[in-house]
Amino acid sequence: MTRAKTPPEKDIKNQKANLPGQTDAISAEVAPQQLPLALEMRPALGRDDFMVAQSNSEAVAWIDQWPNWPVPALCLYGPRGCGKSHLAEVWRARSAALRVMARDLDGVHPDDLLGDAKGLVIEDADLDDGGGLDETVCFHIYNMLKERGGHLLLTATQPPARWKVALPDLKSRLGAALVCEISPPDDDLMVGLLLKLFADRQIQAGPQTISYILPRIERSFVALSELVAAVDRRALAEKRAVTLPLVRSVMEEL
Fold it and tell me: Are residues 211 and 159 in the same domain?
């Protein structure tokens, strides 16, 4: 497994991610009211806004570095809801890549799947829901993309080194892939993200509202964005201020 090192800053096109070790990187010790100022909001090409933070900045940097990856494959791994599929969608839109769930690769002919494409996203590559990943198909897909000068992006909950891969050739190729972990946001970052999302919509959310939301929502960027958007829609529709009762009502319906 190749632990992905941060791409050289001078080689990153439009790179804005706060990379670990930089002086402006977000720290869990930063006060919540300061966090919104350190976050970058970027449009995700047709998706909800994707928020860049320390937990995902390394992965974002490699997405920004594409197509200048040193190897053909990148694996983004982390718990469900951490944003890896969302970030994979950003890359897919940029690269015109195709997308497939790992469970749907069983028996597929690589030529039929790829066509002329030079990029592919394989989602949930490490999930074993009965059949597991078709290793032979995956191996041939990797080789085809490499021969075309293309790239493969995989998402998973665990790094490739922990996958149950029996095919030696595929195992060696996965071992050479770039690997980036995306972590879920901690409490301070969750607070900061909520405050920024509300502020972007010119909504003032009080401490009681934030404290109510935190233990009752999935710890993911997408979940926070969806909640704030729903709260804003309800407040506008009912011509009400954003209060704890309104937020509680919205959360009960989500």
Answer: no
